[in-house]
Amino acid sequence: MFAYTGGFSVYAACAGASQVCSIEASESALHTAEENFRRNSLDPANFQFVRGDAFEEFRKMDEEYDVIILDPPAFAKGKNQITQAARGYKDINLQAMNHLADGGMLMSFSCSSYISQDFFQKILFGAAKDSRRDVQFIKRLSHAVDHPVSVFHPEGDYLKGFLCRT
Prior knowledge:
By secondary structure, the protein is of the alpha/beta class. Helix content is 36%, strand content 23%.
């Protein structure tokens, strides 16, 4: 979900995923994703590219997945959007948890600098509780080491994520 130009999708396909479905609202980003598949010697015709709103697409799905990756844009671009963003993160993660197979893996990210990693973990807890799934945190995810964060600009530490298992 929120596939953008297909970075995670290409990586999954190159790693041998038997099926990859990239869902993205931007048509131009999906075209770039298809081109990124070609650049990695992958035929886009063998994979799914769906232009749509992630929230709506989840609600239309019946399938269960072994892996779901949520990499949305920032839901909170200001302090006044924190409550609304938390609702959005909880909803999209709840939908993902409801579509994961038993033992499935969820990679969930937030790049909202106003949502701390601790708060994001609590949001995921709320989604897990509402989904009535036994969700385990496997690993905390963050920026790569080539993205240092200045002590004078803690907002630069905006990317946070969790690898979870159901």
